[in-house]
Amino acid sequence: MKQSIVIIIILILFFSCKDSEKTNGIEQTATNNAQLYFNGAIITMASDEVAYAEALVEENGRIVFVGSQKDAESEYENASKINLNGNTLLPGFIDPHSHFGMVSNTMAQVDLNPEPVGTVVNIDDILNKLQAFKENHNIADGEWIFGWGYDDGELAEKRHPTKRDIDKVLPSNPVYLQHTSGHMGVANTMALEKLNVNAESKNPEGGNIERFPNTKEPTGLVQETAMYPFVGNMLEILAKDQSKYFDTTQEYYASHGITTAQDGMTDRNTIRFFQSQADAGKLNIDLISLAGYAELDSNIKDSTLQFKNYNNGFKVQGTKIVADGSPQGKTAFFTKPFLTEVPGCSNDCRGLPSLSQETINTLFLTAYKNDNQLFIHCNGDATVDMIIEAHENACKQLGQPLDKDRRTIIIHAQFSRPDQLEMFVKYKMEPSFFTNHAFFWGDVHVENLGKERAHFLSPMVFAHQLGLKPTNHSDATVTPINPLFTIWSAVNRVSRSGAVIGEDERTTPYLAIQAITSNAAYEYFEEDLKGSLSKGKLSDFVILDKNPLKVEPMEIKNIQVLETIKEGKTIYKRK
Ligand SMILES: [Zn+2]
User: Fold this and answer.
1) How far apart are CA 122 and CA 426, in angstroms?
2) Ligand 1 centre distance from Cα of residue 33 (Å)
3) How confident is residue 517, by pLDDT bands cut at 50, 70 and 90?
4) Dihedral angle at the C-alpha atoms of 14, 17, 21, 27, nearest 10 degrees?
């Protein structure tokens, strides 16, 4: 009892300290001068029409004026002037979906990405990099080594490495390599032994342990739920270095113009960790977590976990459900079969859902009952059907209207059919698309799914015409976090081989920017605070060296972020 009183007193002291610091902070900013931006392309993003403003004034972290330079100067004559020198000012980029924690973890892993992210061409390159990593970092025998970003489709051998390949160079360390899709990985012999995966192991529900032909011996490739123990183990081991990499990770996001970042599936421990970093005053961007569905019940009962509200720059927005796998890994769930061979499947190979309809129904029911916003990873159209069914079922059971403003977000929604997008409009669901796939896997999708389905991937234009507010994401670490690359892929939809993947779905640069500014603010219910350069909104800005609306479309990805500003403060400046 005594002890708990002491703890309560300490907590009160701690929080009152925090409060006064916060008050001091606000007072301090209050003495700052207003800042007047002029002489650049100030694109407001305030409506569906392109609009430029001559000048913008911000004061104390908020936009106080948008309009003509003459009016700005007479109304704010004491403001310090910031000459944009012809550069472009946009609202800070809002990340509709990536994995902040995974990006942070890659900072301690071997980069096995093919170009343009990394340099790996074949399996030997992977093995050389693994060997060099062990040597350069003085890693002792028996310690875990992790790699990320390898892509079997981009390797010269067109296959996954096996445990035997990895054993050749690292026989005395447990090794786990995460595939670029985030839906599978390869372990070596020692790693498989450590996690008790062997010839006797059965495939878990919703997962696959790949075997060598005509044997039960695992190759090392573990897919979907079979991968979870390996990822869990990896996260646990890398957690030790979490705070070391937290700052570098947010600097990395800020260097790309991002002022609001997402962690696309966060367990309760990591939520605590993020909040502790935020409470220590470490956050200079906003960070949004989506809590993992496995903890939905306990999270809702946890009175210390408040959804939707920022606390020192961090909030948990809602809950993330993973309903299927990846289309390039052939684990996304479709209504029509893949056109090419699917490993471990002999007929009617349509991929697989990660959860049963019953489980998804229960999750929807719990979430809708508690006004908890849902974000559901769906790639194939069969999974989207399951989500629509779960939505209808939950509304019916709870007696809630089908079109209540819940903003249930379908993450990826890559192969949604036109009729499903129409249902999204009816049910106030929003798609968060993934046009980077057109570049990274567009050619593979044409092969595996046929031209018709592949060319309609992430149909931004169709969705926009229906009146939806599509966002567009990187899903980093799956593809690079760079929002200018995301704009570029939405506008051009050019594949690695140079083919255009769905000419009709190429967006205007303006719509591609809306997807990571105003529409992304809407996704998080933050349209009153962020997403456009409008009076009263936060002074979250990005300054670019060129105007994405004016350059040659293929040049968009070469545009440079010069400066990132969060609530009036510069958090990144290009050297
Ligand atoms: Zn994701």
Assistant:
1) 47
2) 41
3) very high
4) 140
Q: How far is CA 261 from CA 296, 317, 340, 444, in A?
A: 22, 12, 37, 29
Domain positions in the chain are 20-92+534-575, 100-238, 257-318, 323-530
For residue 112, give both structure tokens.
């096995």
Class of domain 20-92+534-575: mainly beta
Q: Give the global pTM.
A: 0.85
Tokens of 332: 């996304």
CA of 139 to the centre of ligand 1 (A): 30
412 CA → ligand 1 middle, Å: 8
Longest dimension (CA), the chain: 81
Residues facing residue 150 across a β-bridge: 179
User: Do 100-238 and 20-92+534-575 have the same topology in CATH?
Assistant: no
Distance 425 CA to ligand 1 centre (A): 23
Parallel/antiparallel/unpaired status of strands 218-224 and 184-187: antiparallel
Distance 99 CA to ligand 1 centre (A): 6
Average pLDDT for residues 21-25, to the nearest whole number? 35
Instruction: State the residue for tokens 């997403």.
Output: 531
Statement: residue 482 has pLDDT above 80: yes
Architecture of domain 100-238: Roll (3.10)
Fold entry, domain 323-530: TIM Barrel (3.20.20)
